[in-house]
Amino acid sequence: MHANKQRIYIAGHNGMVGSALIRQLQHLENIELVTCSHQQLDLTRQADVEDFFQQEAIDQVYRAAAKVGGIHANNTYPAEFIYANLMMECNIIHAAHQAGVQKLLFLGSSCIYPKLAEQPMREDALLTGTLESTNEPYAIAKIAGIKLCESYNRQYRRDYRSVMPTNLYGPYDNFHPENSHVIPAMMRRFHEAKCQSDKEVIVWGTGIPMREFLHVDDMAAASVYVMELDDVTYRQHTAPMLSHINVGSGVDCTIRELAESVARAVGFEGELVFDASKPDGTPRKLLDVSRLKNLGWQASVTLEKGLRDTYAWFLQNESLYRK
């Protein structure tokens, strides 16, 4: 019945990026989405992953499965982060190859670039300097994923591509008070402050560092766009040996501007107090997205609209985040 349908496996479909990929792909014709929960398939178990690929007759893979967390989690559980991420990507990429899957997209992270990389960070900055120490194990796993894809392309002429997103936010983000990234953490704190009629919210750091953010629906759109590029076009823009492409908005803002934008989206009207005794982190992190722009894609969701939409989703799903 499905002889002419492309069977597309989304690894990590319940996560923020995986669920956005499903929203992006589910309306396309002649495709059949294949998903499998962690309870059904442990991606760190090689034999189980190989069996899954042999049984499912997959045509394409979007590899969005990853163990992720903020600075605190990365610092506290480095062994779990490097082990789980290495095992998942090795098992999926190798099993896909063994099962004859020709097209695969690997989703990485901007933390692959050196701590002191020139801004904005270009793809060829990879492996030119020392990584940020707090998330080095996670970054090394992501770099290994890029090199796995490159190696299978070189040796077996596979078409395995890699995209490196900037800081993502949106529906299905993690709004945990300690383990979440900056946007969901701020959103939850400002929401609770609004509900409690607090007069002020304290924000860590000076507010001066600059960061780039991309709505996860833009990330999913870019991923499908890169996956669907014809082989000649893709190779022209990624040769020689640069198999990965940065995905970002190309625009950054200060943490102060971000906090003000989140406060507006939430409707918190109190004062924002910046605690300069707390660490700021890297002064600036911005991806050079000129390669993707030259390929014909750029982000369309503004930060203001993305924050409003994310807050609306948070309100509808707030019960998920009650401790």
TrEMBL record:
Pathway noted in the entry: Nucleotide-sugar biosynthesis; GDP-L-fucose biosynthesis via de novo pathway; GDP-L-fucose from GDP-alpha-D-mannose: step 2/2
Which residues does the UniProt record annotate as the domain NAD-dependent epimerase/dehydratase? Answer: 8-230
Q: Where is this site: Important for catalytic activity?
A: 109, 111
Per UniProt, substrate binds at 189, 204, 211, 280
The record describes the protein's role as: Catalyzes the two-step NADP-dependent conversion of GDP-4-dehydro-6-deoxy-D-mannose to GDP-fucose, involving an epimerase and a reductase reaction.
Domain of life of the native organism: Bacteria
Alphabetized, the UniProt keywords read: Isomerase, Multifunctional enzyme, NADP, Oxidoreductase
Q: What is this protein called?
A: GDP-L-fucose synthase
Coiled-coil portions: none
Which EC numbers characterise this protein's activity in its record?
A: 1.1.1.271
The UniProt GO MF terms for this protein read:
GDP-L-fucose synthase activity; isomerase activity; NADP+ binding
Query: Which SUPFAM superfamilies did the record assign?
Result: NAD(P)-binding Rossmann-fold domains (SSF51735)
Cross-referenced InterPro entries: Epimerase_deHydtase, GDP_fucose/colitose_synth, NAD(P)-bd_dom_sf
GO BP field: 'de novo' GDP-L-fucose biosynthetic process
Query: Could you list the residue ranges that cross the membrane?
Result: none
Residues annotated to bind NADP(+): 12-18, 107-110, 142, 165-168, 181
- Pfam families cross-referenced by the UniProt entry: Epimerase
According to the record, the signal peptide region is none
Q: Which family does it belong to?
A: Belongs to the NAD(P)-dependent epimerase/dehydratase family. Fucose synthase subfamily.
UniProt catalytic activity? GDP-beta-L-fucose + NADP(+) = GDP-4-dehydro-alpha-D-rhamnose + NADPH + H(+)
Active-site residues from the entry: 138 (proton donor/acceptor)
